[in-house]
């Protein structure tokens, strides 16, 4: 062996590009599938099964309140999984977050309902606990997946690689709603309410097994490995991130705000508003057919679409979400994250003013609203996979990006469907205030973007 050959160190093992893409994509797809299965059920079945009431609005509000519990739990998950992600590495933490979310989702599918004798109080309580566990799992999932993708990305490709975990959101949404749609078409209303709604939750177990197999084959990211070799791992990442990176924490939270408000208005709110009866007479007839009392004083009119028709419209809109999530990566790489997001956020501000004319323009107008909204969602969500992690140094990157992402979920998403439903009632069924609510959130995000700095060219190893 020559002297040169003897002194050349072996190349450090790296994750193949295909494995990085698949592991970051499949994990978030599963996690968001689990999350959206609940969001869809919260509109379609949980008000009747877990929060039965003579007042349909009260049941819907209770269901949305439990929907919001997960967002309260997500910052807790970000602190928990962020600590271990920055202390022991990204790989093991991602496996744990996936298990937490998956187990909670399966258990929801096995719970008795409040209609079961003796379970009137315990069933809703257990639903709250499992929803909380879902939030903890997702609180640790996103940041780890984003770091897995971007810390393995070649130079000049971080924004592009960062879109792959983001693509899990539309994929998970489409799968979750597609499963509900198939069940709804093939089952009677009685069978769907009796057992059909459980299938998407229990089926999550198979998806989790696939995700675990892919993630267990990963090795640690090279960026984190270098931090370990240099002795730069933080002993207490939470304390360190608040001490050294408090400004990026605040900016990251508000940079993400409009994205969250937009997405949960486009999904949970539009599904509720779109499938609510148009008139008091139609709502009263539906209540009578279901053997329920109807209180006209609490009724807020909607668009009157059938559940199946509106699910199809949502799935079509979400295809644009996926497409423009991928488009956003190259745009953020070419023009910078900040400029791309500023232009998109201005678009969201304008879009908020289109709620009334588009919602009132029949099926074409509603479809246009969904397509425009989900297109903007892709353009704003895509760059987040790179911009939030880039705000923080390696030794607190998991914790910092996770806290910003998940605190934004409380401010922007936990209360979004409930606020929208309340504003709808205040405006006598008009979505005008809902649109203004979205525009206001986008203005706050725009301010955060204007005072932030471009992160495209930072050194990711520090």
Automatic annotation (TrEMBL):
> Where would I find the Major facilitator superfamily (MFS) profile domain in this sequence?
20-456
Compartments it resides in: Cell membrane
The answer on whether this UniProt entry bears the keyword Ribonucleoprotein reads: no
What InterPro entries does the record point to?
MFS_dom, MFS_sugar_transport-like, MFS_trans_sf, Sugar_transporter_CS
Q: What is its main location?
A: membrane
Keywords recorded for this protein, A-Z: Cell membrane, Membrane, Transmembrane, Transmembrane helix, Transport
The membrane-spanning stretches of this chain are 57-81, 93-115, 121-148, 160-183, 195-216, 249-271, 310-329, 341-360, 366-391, 403-426, 432-451
Domain of life assignment: Bacteria
| Any matching Pfam family | Sugar_tr
How does the protein associate with the membrane?
A: Multi-pass membrane protein
Indicate what this protein is called per its UniProt record.
Metabolite-proton symporter
Species source reads Conyzicola nivalis
